[in-house]
Structure formats: C-alpha cells, structure tokens
Amino acid sequence: MTSLAALRCGAGLVTVALPKSIDLATADLMEVMTLPLPETPEGTLSLAAEKSLLQAVQGKDAVVIGPGLSQNEETQRLIRTLIAEISLPIVVDADGLNALAGDLSALKKRKAPVILTPHPGEMSRLIGKRTDLIQKERFTVAAHFAEQWGAVLVLKGAHTVVATPDGFVRVNNTGNPGMATAGTGDALTGMIGAWLAQGIDPVDAAAGGDAPWYGRRSRRRRPRGDRPDRLRFDSEDSGGDPKIR
Known about the structure:
Layout: H1 2-8, E1 15-19, E2 33-37, H2 50-56, E3 63-65, H3 73-85, E4 90-92, H4 95-100, H5 105-108, E5 114-116, H6 120-127, H7 131-136, H8 138-149, E6 152-155, E7 161-163, E8 169-171, H9 184-197, H10 202-208, H11 212-217
Parallel strand pairs: 1-2, 3-4, 4-5, 5-6
Antiparallel strand pairs: 6-7, 7-8
Helix pairs in contact: 1-9, 9-10
C-alpha cells in the first residue's frame, strides 16, 4: 500500500526493501522494484542488511521506513541505526515509530529532515503518555515533541495536527469515518514520501499528505493524458481514471 501510494503521487521509481523470502510479485505490484535482503529466523529484516541498505539509498531522494517491518528486536535495532545514519529525508511510521519508542536518540543524530506520522496510540508509546491525555492536548503535545526532537510531526486522527520544529502548527479540519480504515495510514506515509522525493519542503509534504485541498481534489475527475498518478499497467478503458486494484 505504501509503495503504490508513492507511485500514485508521482514518485516515479519506488524500491521496496524486504526480507528475501517475501515475493512481491504475488502482490500485483508490477511497477515496484524490490531489494531482497538478509532476514532473521522469524523472516524479518536482520542487522546483516544494514550495509546493503545504506548502499541502496545512495542516489535516492527520500526514504520511508516502518510499515510492515515487525517488532522483532533485531529488526528494531536495524531501524534505529538506519534512522540515525541515512542522510536523506525520511518518513517514519508504524514499526519505525515502535522502534523509537523508549529510545528517541536516533532523531538527534539526523542531518536531514525527518517526518513522524503517529496515530494517538503510537504517540503514547513514543512519549510515555496516556492516549486520552494526548487527545485532550493534541496541539500542545505535537508542538512540544516537534520542537524538542527537531522533527516534523503528523499526529493523525480527527483534526490531524502537523507540527514543525520551529513551533508552527497546521490543522486539517476535514475528513470522514472512512479514513479510520486499516491501511489508510500506510498510504499516507507513501504519499508524503513521494512528495519529499520530488523536492517538496518537508512541512508542505507532511501537510499535503493530509491537507483539505488534497481530499477535495481527489474527488474531481481528471482528464486523460500524461499524469503523475498513471502507472504503466493502468487500464485504458477506465475513462481516464486509474484502475482500482
């Protein structure tokens, strides 16, 4: 979902790093490149993949890390190492956020922008604060975290908050219950990653992935032609709209 969302938002070329035992060819993702890597006995990425991953990101424009990586202890150590060492803009979500819970020091080692996209439960684990208290103080919690750790924070949920290291806060006052569906956050992560890769400012990329104008624009019909969201194997008889897989 993350890789397909990135392609739909104009990333152009997307490579998925994954344990070597996983075959994405069965997932109907023909446009996605893959990088098979060493794995743990549990079938998750192992620390032995670090060198290959650091080499693989050379020449890339942005990195997304977290969705589907698991909470395996060795994999979590790898995630923290990569967040600290990769000198490209990074979006961290899902198991990437879980890897940082209790040890946020990797964020202070970064030399390039980082965007974190937690839902309230993940935010609770990141800062050790109850979810209900986070929900009552969403603006304050998001702003304080972003400033303290030098990250752009996208605190998801009703009225998503986007906070920046300089204390600026944006709020998305649109949305509907359909957004509270498994996988929506993974798609959002891919969208933000795609915009980072296209050179969009990290704050604008983070806000754009959850912005009111995006929701409205997505409901409009686009004309046929050269479009960043059209993939090689999209159906041509869909009236100009990409095939729904």
